Amino acid sequence: MKKAPLLLPFILLMLIFHACKKDEDLAPQTSFQISYDGIPYVFTEGVIWEYGTEVYRPKHFSHAYLIPNQNVFNRGSNYTIPTDDPPLTLAFFLSTPDSDTFKPGTYEFVEEFTDWGSPESYEAYLSRIQGKYMISDVVVGFDENGDNVIDGEEKHGITSGHVLVTEEFLEFDLTLTNGSIVTGKANPQFEKSSPPA
Known about the structure:
It is built from 2 helices and 14 strands. The protein has helices at about 5-25, 120-130, and strands spanning about 30-35, 40-45, 45-55, 60-65, 80, 90-95, 105-110, 135-140, 150, 155, 160-165, 170-175, 180-185, 190-195. The protein is globular. It starts with a helix and ends with a strand. The model is unreliable at about 20-30 (pLDDT under 50).
């Protein structure tokens, strides 16, 4: 009988710990990791541009993901890394087929279409992407020389990869044109805005 009063504080402590752990599990993710060749970098921000139905992919609904901010979108200019930010940037489009909304799914890499002078090639491209959840227009920047600037030589496309999108997370595994591997898992609820006109 004397053991019961001794166990009561222990039981209360365990209940409090369990309640706090549940609150932590329900808290929104405020940071996420992206690894470049196995080295993890922590991010806290990302931006989604909502494009909607695209002109040159008329049966796909597209979003652009920009990590850590919209300044990484400009392929033609250098990107100066803000103080305390990782030396890594990521920009890509996810396109949902046959839809007027963005949907969860596994988005696979599809090579860029470049042969704009050939209507036949364009029709073949549209046929090839029909019904596909696709990732495209990928640019990964990495400050290889440590000068806090990502220039054109330090920006790479991908040769293969996929992005898994669920209601809870966005997970990717990408192989770059320089042979590097980029992996990560993030909360997909980034700041949303319209792309610049």
